[in-house]
Amino acid sequence: MSPSATSDRGSRLTVWDGLDQSGPFITPSLLACDFGRMRDVLDRIARIGVQAVHLDVMDGRFVPNLTYGPPVIARWREATHLVFDAHLMIVEPERWIDPFADAGCDTLVVHLEAVEQPWPVLERIKARGLRAGIAVNPPTLLRLDPVPSWLALLDSALVMSVMPGFGGQVFDPSVLSKVAALKQARPGLRVAIDGGIGPDTLAAAVATGVDQLVIGSAFFRADDQLEVAWSDLNQRLRQVNPSPLLGTRRRTDPL
């Protein structure tokens, strides 16, 4: 375990918790970048103002694709102080909480479809000092009436606007009803959206109350012009989010 994996986590989580205080924010998805140049990529995006990145962890079982695991993430952690927001698209995520925490992840988001009972999994994540989240796929029925007890444990919820497994897919606007339902069931909850988000689709997400936009292809396809792409995406976000309070969520908000 890298010393910085846990020793600097407190400062990273302070950054993470404050990212949405002035409105919705963007986290680049590393799924869309060149894994072979990851240290260079992490350095470049940190220099242009990125503070947190989204890690897409796939096991080839829960989704039909395979990416990386704790040993690779641990090496990346040695190279950067960026917040690691890890989206676990894996079966039996409860078996992997400690390895991913030790590797330097700061948040762990597990799929509702991958756990029989969310409560004990979320409790274990939080016991490791990480932020805990639940992700839900487009076809999954989200039952929030009555409000499930595990909702109170969430630091965030991730609404998938494509089926997970591959980048570059087309945004499904029908999932925005889940965003609204989560906001109603748990006022103040940070809600993220992932899949097909870019300049032409982020407005609809923000209008529904999304706080965090995970963007991959629309950012990293710029490659040698990442600074321009980052500036353009954030400018577009400011254009569609005129109110600085839209999407704001404070950890002291009542449940």
From TrEMBL:
UniProt key word Isomerase: yes
EC number of the protein: 5.1.3.1
Protein's recorded name: Ribulose-phosphate 3-epimerase
Superkingdom of origin organism: Bacteria
NCBIfam families documented for this protein: PRK05581.1-4
Cofactor needs: Zn(2+); Mn(2+); Fe(2+)
Entry keywords, A to Z: Carbohydrate metabolism, Iron, Isomerase, Manganese, Metal-binding, Zinc
Oligomer status and interactors: Homodimer.
GO biological process: carbohydrate derivative metabolic process; carbohydrate metabolic process; generation of precursor metabolites and energy; nicotinamide nucleotide metabolic process; purine nucleotide metabolic process
CDD domains the UniProt entry points to: RPE (cd00429)
A Pfam family reported for this protein in Swiss-Prot or TrEMBL: Ribul_P_3_epim
GO terms assigned for molecular function: D-ribulose-phosphate 3-epimerase activity; metal ion binding
Organism: Isosphaera pallida (strain ATCC 43644 / DSM 9630 / IS1B)
Enzyme class: isomerase
Keyword ATP-binding on entry: no
